[in-house]
Amino acid sequence: MSDMGEDFRAYREHWQEKRADNREQSTQILTDCGIGFISRNMGAHLTVTHAGKIVDFWPGTGKWIDRAGPKGRGVFPLLRHLGVQR
């Protein structure tokens, strides 16, 4: 295999591991903060409910979308959006 192919495989594996780590860490942060959620697709998608808000959250990438409109990226901006003090 070419060097370029090997580099691409290493790059892809790195980001797969990073997203897996993000899923684990973000889910633990939500749990530690007492935020309720339903895990879907083996944890790749969480439906977060807190303070009357329903938010779809993908912890691997950090993307979140409030079903009422606002959206963003990252677990800490999500917590601020939900009004949670850490």
Structure description:
With 86 residues, the chain is α+β, with helices and mostly antiparallel strands. Helix content is 44%, strand content 28%. The chain has 2 helices and 5 strands, in the order αβββββα. The model has no long low-confidence stretch (mean pLDDT 95).
- Which class of secondary structure composition applies to the elements? alpha+beta
Averaged pLDDT, please? 95
The helix-strand sequence is: HEEEEEH
Strand content: 25-35%
Please state the CA-atom Rg, rounded to the nearest Å: 15 Å
Number of strands: 5
Q: Please tell me what the overall shape is.
A: elongated
Largest sheet: 5 strands, antiparallel
Describe the structure concisely for a colleague.
The chain has helices spanning about 5-30, 75-80, and strands at about 35-40, 45-50, 55-60, 65, 70-75.
